[in-house]
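Appendix B, record 7
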Amino acid sequence: MSRPRVVLISMYVGHQGVPHAGGRYLLELQRLLDAETDLTMLTVGNRLNHEAATRAGVPRRLLLLGHEPGRSPVAKLLNRAALWLDTSWRHRRDPGMPSAAFILGLLRSKEARAAVREADVIDLQYSESIRLVRLLRRINPRARITGTFHDVMSQSFAREPRENPEEKRHLQAVAERSRGQERAMVARLDEVLVFSRKDAELLGSPPHTIVHPPLSTGNEPRHRPASAPIVVVVSYLARDENDKAARWTIDHVWPLVRANQPDAELRLVGGGASDDLRARVATLGPDSGVVLAGFVDDLDAEYDAAAVALVPVLQGAGVKFKTVEAMCHGVPVVTTTVGAEGIDGDDLFAGLTDDPAQLAESLCAVLADTEAAQPRADRVQDWAQDAYGVRRFEATVRTTWTS
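Structure tokens (predicted):
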């Protein structure tokens, strides 16, 4: 039996060592597709993806489209227009728009268009790529087109903080346009994949396939109750919601924890910290207990040493991979309602609240008695390793290749 011809389209590329959760999901998807299908991956040819293309784990056939140097006045003009659309227009009016540079590159590339025309399955990752479904249908009317919503962008826009009435009106309009676009995308796809039942309900009918991200190898060891009062926050700090969550924790949660547990340590683990966040941590001084660890090579060691994992996000949408990862490592988890969103299970958290005082209280309760907090974390680890294991992920994805 011949292998299905698959075109995977994403504006990001997964690779070994990728610093953000979405990239790690793509890495596992790329591995599966490269092993079991005739895969061509298309992505935008920006600097970040050109760097990613040199790393281990990228597909064997990866085409970077857009940002090619123009040889004629018309080509140069089109490149400038695409760049303007990808910056000014995307920022002001339509943050979820597909990359204009990518579209231009696709239309220019005979190799990319041929891959799309010959594909049995076109797999679209993230809303920016799914917005291309109408164009792709025209190029290949017979292909099975699937789309994976990593989050529901209309919900994310609706949760953005509004500092003034004008900004409130702008974000309401962006969220409403995004809802309309989501309805149109869902209607045109052959299969819709989401990470949670909550996202399926937000997107509405028809029924969707829930695919749990492959966040567990199944080999994570039992977590031993920590001997030191360490609170770990793992996130890609370059993302705005994670940067804001780190600042909110430092300002509103951590002083309450330290008042109760003077030797407690808060470790902010993850790359991409802004200069402002670095300066904020530096002003606290070494006696604050706040450590900006940045990117680490061995995340397992961070979880192993932690007494409790904190996921303090107040914005964004979709399943928070960092919450599930902590569960898979058997670490007690304290989180906000946004951090817990889309994770369906019973009695999963050592603390679940948006109130900073109650978050601090939950953290202190774990730090005071790590032995008592561990049995729940062990049970949750068993559940998470099964629900978010690689085998279940691969089995689910395979079902989407055929109607």
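Remarks on this record: The radius of gyration is 22 Å. The mean pLDDT is 86.
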